[in-house]
Design a protein that fits this description.
The protein is an alpha/beta fold. 45% of the residues lie in helices and 14% in strands.
Length: 246
């Protein structure tokens, strides 16, 4: 029986986040430059989006380009920005056909204008779609996000007594989305790499040895099935949770 057939469609995670790791290593295994891996990662992105749509996952956030990635060689960064244009342009029809709404989080001012315009065009075109929301984390890091939120709080003149967890949440770039229920990271690394640190306080973590370009629908379903086999307690005891579920 496939993972998809075993999934309880009534308990699908509302929000899945993915760290798409392993493109460079995948390319080196193929005896190509790193950009070859990034180019071949598009099929994995399409598979993840289609799987999320099939399960009716409401939000899918992909860690597409971190603020730390700006430190990579210029040739690779330039290639990634061109790939962003190509991918968004080529996949817009697929997003429309699947009723997917595209959005983004991160420091958009650092994204080249041409890439930003293509991205914004797709965001506007898909704005009325009511299915899965696909969020691209671009030029994003969690420490950057929290620092920006604190700057805005200070600029708005809030005093210390007015600041609590809910206040900070309203100033985060993810304020319109629920916290992730499930994080998937490919590539065999066991860390979260400055991604949604605040939001993942109670997120279930799933690590895969697969390199991202090899990720397909069944791998997404397997991660969701693993998620459903866990008991989420949010600080409560096992007995308390079982009592609530009885």
């Amino acid at each position: 029986m496939s993972a998809l057939e075993q999934i309880d469609k009534t308990r699908v995670p509302q929000h899945v986040a993915i760290i798409m790791d392993g493109n460079g290593r995948w390319a080196m295994k193929q005896k190509h430059e790193r950009l070859f891996g990034h180019n071949n990662a598009i099929e994995a992105v399409r598979a993840a989006v289609e799987a999320a749509v099939q399960l009716n996952v409401r939000y899918l956030t992909l860690y597409t380009f971190s603020t730390e990635n700006w430190n990579r060689p210029k040739e690779e960064v330039d290639g990634l920005m061109e790939l962003l244009i190509k991918a968004v342009h080529n996949e817009t029809k697929t997003l429309m056909d699947n009723n997917v709404r595209l959005q983004s989080i991160g420091d958009m001012q650092r994204i080249p204008e041409r890439s930003r315009k293509v991205l914004q065009g797709c965001i506007e075109k898909t704005a009325a779609n009511s299915g899965t929301t696909l969020v691209l984390a671009l030029s994003y890091s969690s420490r950057w996000e929290i620092a920006e939120a604190l700057k805005l709080i200070c600029r708005d003149g809030l005093n210390a007594d007015e600041v609590n967890e809910e206040t900070l949440r309203r100033y985060l770039t993810t304020r319109d989305y629920p916290d992730p229920d499930l994080l998937i990271r490919t590539g065999g690394e066991l860390r979260i790499s400055n991604f949604l640190l605040w939001q993942m306080a109670y997120t279930e973590l799933y690590f895969s040895d697969l390199l991202w370009p090899d990720f397909r629908h069944e791998d997404f379903f397997t991660a969701v099935l693993d998620f459903q086999r866990r008991q989420r307690r949010f600080g409560k005891t096992e007995a308390q949770v079982e009592g609530e579920q009885a």
